[in-house]
Amino acid sequence: MSLAGFGIAAAAQTTSQPNIILLVADDLGYGDLSCYGATRVSTPCVDSLANAGVRFTNAHACASTSTPSRYALLTGQYPFRKAGTDVAAGNAGMIISPDQYTVADALHEAGYATAALGKWHLGLGSETARQDWNGELDESPRDLGFDYHYIMAATADRVPCVFIENGRIANFDPSAPIEVSYARNFEGEPTGKDNPELLTKLHPSHGHDMSIVNGISRIGYMKGGGKALWRDEDIADSIASHAIQFMEQNADRPFFMYLCTNDIHVPRYPHERFRGKSPMGLRGEAIMQFDWTVRQVTDALRRLGLAENTLLIITSDNGPVLDDGYMDQAVTLAGSHEPGGPFRGAKYSAYEAGSVVPFIVHWPARVKAGVSDALVSQIDNVATLAALAGVEVPSDGAAPDSRNNLPTWLGESNRSRDYAVKMASGRNLVLRSGKWKYIPANKGNKMITWGPIIETGNSPLPQLYDQSKSLDEQQNVAASHAKVVKKFNKWLEEIKAGTR
């Protein structure tokens, strides 16, 4: 079918069932976009969408790391409720069970074509370390309501370094079968630790010194792959092209696309067209590449006649990090740039920069331009999008923590959620409600111990911060607000028990 044909078919769509694109960046901080105050990098496409839609200033991911955050986003269940929702290895079994209800299930029920593209990091196959990488995986996103998927098994810094398309390695090379291990190396295979002379693009700063792919060493060991191995410079292009292809193929029906970029996660090695374009080096170029990806998607929507009736949500899985394992000069070249914006902490942390994220909602047919300071949480994704599609979430325990917050997400109300629960490194929970940010007392280390120089937020004393006075979480007022601390401890216990 011609592109013109797609555009004609698309005209039949109505606002009762808009296309929905949930576009999730990786490690993109609140302060990494120019529409949120960045001055050392420009994101003109995202800015234009923010200016024409609703830009939220108080939006929260459910965790300060990727796997648990994405688990909550897709299932509507807090990650602390399920074991195994910590940062997943590349050979982890699928963390979301096929019998769990997902946002893709809800939209599939409403007649949407559904797709997962880009970063996955939620496990594949029914058993950890027992995947048949050279055949068809026995469990994949197709078992979670997605009609189509073209995904990275985990992240770019973890093996296997190949894309998975509909349960099989994309561009599979039978002459180079793949083996993957997170326990031991394969005989004769070089590593970043033992063969640094083979690292032609990036060197590790901590960890990330195992198998070498495309001149960059990774976490985990693999052999084989051949022509199926990705080139880091082309990852964004591959994800964008498959997203556009999915839109073209489904332009005559409503579609839902869970579109996850690799940017700006490490290893940061964007396409050559961005090289030397940012004063912040590779990390700045990766932010520019993220904006480019958004541009490819929005240009395709306009070309297909779908822009007016597409709900586009732009957000991030968690907060930012500068040095996350590679010598890419992110710390040195950041200069005055504050990736976490006005917030304390970073990825992994219980402090706000770990989980306060950009959140932009754009839908020309219905959403009016504005800025919202309403408290919103990604946990509400399932119930909110199900309500938009006219689907009732089953009452048998599906999406147990998700609530319909559609009027607020569409900018038709400024009503805040009562609270936002977030999970930090070490599975420690924190609570944000009204003007208060609460971190319970715990005995963990004050700093991340395995590499990045980041505060965990751990303290033997409870921490309570008045966000209406300052966003920097420097003045702990827990001692003078014992009743608030007691109330929030009670709330957390009720939330854990599922009674609140």
Could you list some keywords that capture this structure?
500 residues; alpha/beta; ten-stranded mixed β-sheet; four-stranded antiparallel β-sheet; globular; disordered N terminus
Structure explained in plain terms:
Helices cover 21% and strands 16% of the residues. It is α/β, with parallel strands linked by helices. Residues 1-13 have low confidence and may be disordered.
Radius of gyration: 22 Å
Q: If you average the pLDDT, what whole number results?
A: 96
* Spatial order of the strands forming the largest sheet: 7-6-5-4-12-1-13-14-2-15
What composes the largest sheet? 10 strands, mixed
Low-confidence stretches: 1-13
Topology:
Layout: H1 3-10, E1 19-25, H2 44-52, E2 54-56, E3 59-60, H3 66-75, H4 103-109, E4 113-119, E5 148-152, E6 163-165, E7 168-169, E8 179-181, E9 212-213, E10 216-217, E11 221-223, H5 235-249, E12 255-260, H6 281-303, E13 310-316, H7 330-333, E14 359-362, E15 370-372, E16 376-377, H8 381-389, H9 406-409, E17 420-423, E18 429-433, E19 436-439, E20 463-466, H10 482-497
Parallel strand pairs: 1-12, 1-13, 2-15, 3-16, 4-5, 4-12
Antiparallel strand pairs: 2-14, 5-6, 6-7, 8-11, 9-10, 13-14, 17-18, 18-19, 19-20
What is this structure, in a nutshell?
The chain is an alpha/beta fold and 500 residues long. Helix content is 21%, strand content 16%.
